[in-house]
Write a structure and sequence with these properties.
This protein has 170 residues and is mainly β.
């Protein structure tokens, strides 16, 4: 599940996502993790409506979500515990919009084809057996470039992801 917040006086929007990943170069205190997945990004915002004189009359709630293929690589520092470990990670991410770039229901709202940024994360993994692991992960994706443009104003999308993990050691 992730929470998206647009950069233009927006409100949180909640969506679901799915990813598949691989952890490698595992050492006692660090490793690398790659993920690729599907997520909906966007948000909700109040758009003021004015009369001919420019006076605000009322507002309308606008909501838009775009489908995105998201990839990231994080370098994770881990602290081993009994049959588990906690970790913190940081790495780049890139999102690739799929589908239409425009939403014309509120003027012209256009999502960029590619957005990118940094992704810090925290997590906990517990080994149930030598081969099976479960865990939780919390990450925050903050765009370094703009995610979309609405009424000529560039917006960023800040996503907070909370993920449940099921792993299998090959």
């Amino acid at each position: 599940m992730n929470s998206n917040k647009p950069g233009l006086s927006g409100e949180n929007s909640y969506t679901y996502s799915g990813t598949i990943g691989i952890d490698y170069f595992e050492h006692p205190y660090f490793y690398l993790s790659n993920k690729i997945g599907y997520v909906e990004k966007g948000g909700r915002m109040n758009i003021p409506v004015t009369d001919i004189g420019g006076n605000p009359t009322f507002g309308t709630l606008y909501s838009k979500k775009w489908e995105v293929i998201n990839i990231n690589t994080t370098f994770r520092l881990k602290y081993p515990l009994n049959n588990s470990h906690v970790y913190t990670g940081l790495g780049p991410f890139a999102g690739f919009r799929i589908g239409s770039e425009y939403d014309i229901s509120v003027g012209l709202h256009k999502a960029n084809k590619i957005h990118y940024g940094l992704c810090p994360e925290l997590g906990y993994n517990r080994y149930l057996t030598e081969k099976i692991m479960i865990g939780i992960n919390a990450s925050y994706q903050n765009n370094l470039n703009s995610f979309s443009t609405i009424y000529g104003i560039k917006t960023k999308n800040k996503s907070f992801d909370f993920t449940l993990t099921l792993g299998y050691n090959l």
